[in-house]
UniProtKB/TrEMBL annotation:
The keyword Ribonucleoprotein does not apply. Coiled coil: none annotated. Gene3D superfamilies: Aldehyde Dehydrogenase, Chain A, domain 1 (3.40.605.10), Aldehyde Dehydrogenase, Chain A, domain 2 (3.40.309.10). Keywords: NADP, Oxidoreductase. One of its GO terms (molecular function) is aldehyde dehydrogenase [NAD(P)+] activity. InterPro entries: Ald_DH/histidinol_DH (IPR016161), Ald_DH_C (IPR016163), Ald_DH_CS_CYS (IPR016160), Ald_DH_N (IPR016162), Aldehyde_DH_dom (IPR015590), ALDH_GabD1-like (IPR044148), GABD/Sad-like (IPR047110). Residues 3-459 form the Aldehyde dehydrogenase domain. This is Succinate-semialdehyde dehydrogenase. Belongs to the aldehyde dehydrogenase family. Transmembrane segments: none annotated.
């Protein structure tokens, strides 16, 4: 895939970039290692000031970088601004919390005495340069939620971003440079996917984090496993959205629309499978379908647009195949199910609601990465849990019920990295984020995320003479 900015609203190639050659990659690996040897010894106060400076710059750049993201991958401009704002917030969160999150820990005195020690301290130390392989759908957020904790922990970072968001990728490196980070602390590598293996195998790279497709995750995990290097993976998702009789149907239906079409439907944590109790199915389906059909599809730079284009022509084709397969096997398109007839350029697809889904349809098990929702009618909470868990993915989940017993049941039995009641899944720097099953492993954000790329070191002091 060429490294290029291609406007998905028009299909026009705006700018192309040359991939780094092996010598240029080597130069960046040298810089990363040199920077790490210095950065790992710096104080939290020093790192805090750098990250706060980056957050301030990002706030000042919000409109510019938002327009860059929208141009490169098509998200509505208002959502791009919100993404930049969230990134600055997360930078500040880690700047202010990292020292406490990585503070020395002291085991139980009884265990210290039992071990024969005078004292024992557990310390969190950085591990080195972390390679981040990141996707295009949240081109700033996905990077910052790795970079902010990694840099605050004393690590350095190398970014291999998706090839269709090169200008956003270069902006991130420049942002950290402008904030005062020394050369080599954070670098963007404009390379193709074929160059990742050699970099990951390089002894100067300590670990890797990847957000992306399941095949990409398998590849990175396999290489890292062969090299015995730590990885964190956040892969696909086909999140369930369970609606039970005690739900506020108006709120559930309104939130369902946002949960499905956020980022033009191209979000791993977007709700995709809407599993509704038979007692409220018809009422929910009517409300949800009406709202989906009323969404405005168009130019993502237009402030009135609800849903912009998919990020690539291939992405739209993949989505069309899933919808066409389902309809061919008997599913009904309650709305949408086609390209907008008034959009003759760009990679647009109408917000779509499908009902009558069966396990033989590809969309039942595969992730629909676009504004397509599937509806399921279930008889009770037992069937709701069964349908929700009948997926290879387990990233997050949503459930609408005001019954405490049902909430306990769902929080226990839904196979996912998160369960969000009476609201939609949304990441926050203070809460751990990650999935189960084929949605990956490890956690980002919160204290769990910053510790993923730390060496937990037990320091044992023998009895003094």
């Amino acid at each position: 895939m060429a490294i290029a900015t291609v406007n998905p609203a028009t299909g026009e190639t705006l700018k192309t970039f040359d991939a780094l050659n092996p010598g240029e990659v080597e130069d960046r690996l040298v810089r990363a290692e040199q920077a790490y040897q210095e950065h790992r010894t710096t104080t939290f106060a020093y790192r805090r000031e750098l990250l706060l400076a980056a957050a301030d710059l990002l706030d000042a750049d919000r409109e510019t970088i938002a327009r860059t993201m929208t141009t490169e991958m098509g998200k509505p401009l208002a959502q791009a601004r919100a993404e930049a704002k969230k990134c600055a917030k997360t930078m500040r969160w880690y700047a202010h919390h990292a020292e406490k999150l990585l503070a020395d820990e002291y085991p139980d005195p009884a265990d210290v005495t039992d071990s024969g020690a005078a004292r024992v301290v557990v310390r969190y130390r950085p591990i080195g340069t972390v390679l981040a392989v990141m996707p295009w759908n949240f081109p700033l957020w996905q990077v910052v939620r790795f970079a902010a904790p990694a840099l605050m922990a004393g690590n350095t970072g190398l970014l291999k971003h998706a090839s269709n968001v090169p200008q956003t990728a270069l902006y991130i490196e420049e942002l950290f440079r402008r904030a005062g980070y020394p050369e080599g602390c954070f670098q963007t590598l404009l390379i193709g996917s074929g160059a990742v293996e050699d970099i990951l195998r390089d002894p100067r790279v300590a670990a890797a984090t990847l957000t992306g497709s399941e095949p990409a995750g398998r590849s990175v995990a396999s290489i890292a496993g062969d090299e015995v290097k730590k990885t964190v993976l956040e892969l696909g998702g086909s999140d369930p959205y369970v609606v039970l009789p005690s739900a506020d149907l108006e709120k559930a239906a309104a939130t369902a629309v946002t949960a499905r079409v956020q980022n033009n439907g191209q979000s791993c944590i977007a709700a995709k499978r809407f599993i509704v109790h038979a007692d409220v199915y018809d009422a929910f389906a009517a409300r949800f379908t009406e709202r989906m059909a009323a969404l405005s599809v168009g130019d993502p730079m237009d402030e009135n647009t609800d849903v912009g284009p998919l990020a690539s022509e291939q992405g739209r084709s993949d989505l069309e195949e899933l919808v066409d397969d389902a309809v061919h096997q008997g599913a009904a398109a309650l709305c949408g199910g086609r390209r907008p007839p008034d959009r003759h350029a760009g990679w647009f697809y109408e917000p779509t609601v499908l009902s009558g889904i069966t396990p033989t349809m590809r969309i039942h098990h595969e992730e629909a990465f676009g504004p397509v929702a599937t509806l399921y009618r279930v008889a009770d909470i037992d069937e709701a849990v069964s349908v929700a868990n009948d997926s290879p993915f387990g990233l997050s989940s949503n459930a609408w019920t005001r019954d405490p017993d049902e909430q306990d049941r769902l929080s226990r039995d839904l196979q996912a990295g998160g369960v969000y009641f009476n609201g939609m899944t949304a990441s926050h720097p203070g809460f751990p984020f990650g999935g189960a099953k084929r949605s990956g492993y490890g956690r980002e954000l919160s204290g769990h995320g910053i510790r993923e790329f730390c060496n937990m070191t037990t320091v044992w002091y023998g009895p003094e003479e």
